Amino acid sequence: MSEEFKVEIVNPEKSFLVKDDVSEVVVPAFEGEMGILKDHISIISFLKPGIIKILSKSGDENYYVEDGIVEFKNNNLSILTSTIFNITDIDKSKQQDLLKQAEEEANKTDINDQSKYLADQKVEVLKTLN
Amino acid sequence: MASLDDLKKRIASVKSTQKITKAMKMVAAAKLRRAQESAEKGRPYSEKMNNIILNLSNGVSDKENAPKLLSGTGQEKTHLCVVMTSDRGLCGGFNSNIIKKAKSYFVKILDEGKELKIITVGSKGNDQLKRVYGDKIIENISFKESKNANYFDADKVGKMVIEKFEAGEFDVCTIFYNQFKNVITQIPQAQQIIPLNNEGEESSSEESYEFEPDEDEILSNLLPKNISTQIFKAMLENSASEQGSRMSAMDNATRNAGEMVDKLTIEYNRSRQAAITKELIEIISGAESL
Known about the structure:
The structure holds two protein chains of two kinds.
Chain A (H helix, E strand, L loop, with lengths): L4 E6 L4 E15 L2 E5 L6 E5 L2 E7 L2 E7 L2 E6 L2 E5 L3 E3 L5 H16 L5 H16 L2
Parallel strand pairs in A: 1-8
Antiparallel strand pairs in A: 1-2, 2-3, 2-5, 4-7, 5-6, 6-9, 7-8
Helix pairs in contact in A: 1-2
Chain B lengths: L3 H56 L8 H4 L6 E7 L9 H18 L3 E7 L1 H11 L3 E5 L9 H16 L5 E9 L5 E9 L15 E3 L2 H75 L1
Parallel strand pairs in B: 1-2, 1-4, 2-3
Antiparallel strand pairs in B: 4-5
Helix pairs in contact in B: 1-6, 3-4, 5-6
């Protein structure tokens, strides 16, 4: 029996990525990173800024996301997100732009704890991309 | 009867109008294809979102303490209407259909003695509504600069709606837009987005989910996103509808202009001939009298 399942990433504009030979996906869930293998129990969770790792036969892929929801059901993983980039597509200047934005957001004083936490996360993740 | 010169001028002017409408039709056709494509591509997201929320809201055990975006504030005193129209005219009945639908809803709300607040998206809707409901319009947004409907804009509107909701400025929110059916038919829609109205929709699966963190927290995170998603969907449908409506309107205009040119040409030829005949008669009778 194969150990592969299907993953689909959609953003509001289009279906971003569909892959059906995935062996493992690691998502930055809100309460910590979560690895999903085949026959995982049905789960719904949401994402914090971080890296989605997709491991498949045809090679590993990494995506940077800022937010989103994951749903896993019947060996179908759906990831809904509004902001996603393939890490290999992010060049230095783009990454610097994002980092600057995130830092500005994190330095705001009039935001609540949760958005502060999310912004801090964003800064941290973007720094590790260097 | 108009003089020959006048007719000539009119034919020329109708012809140049026809050229414009023809060009507009072709531009609309090209844009329509793109708009339709992105409307179709955007569907999976909103469908999936809807599905997850449906699954979640069925899982919420404590209906009393459910997030307010889902269950409402418990009263229906103030209604917020988001009327989404285009920024450009010359698109047939597109804008007036939405306005008509919205106005009949406004009348109903006001008759029931409830308070009404309006946000207009797109300048055409604002132009038409401000004459009668000018004092009710609290916000007017226009995305003239952005070429295509994009999520960023929708998110801005969504965030604003949520901000106002959290400030307790309204209880019920309805969005008005045109649903794209095909090039000839666009259906004006009124969709209630706050509180979320999904009664009667059955959850697609009986399966139970594991939630991380718990349902309430996911829901309160998800619902604001859903507002933006719904608004984005409405924007996509709207832009496809706008181009479709413009295309068929411009097609009609081009055809009408063609008919008019034909009619005017016949009239022109007839009066030209009449003038020649008249001149001939004058010459002949002049020669006879000599």
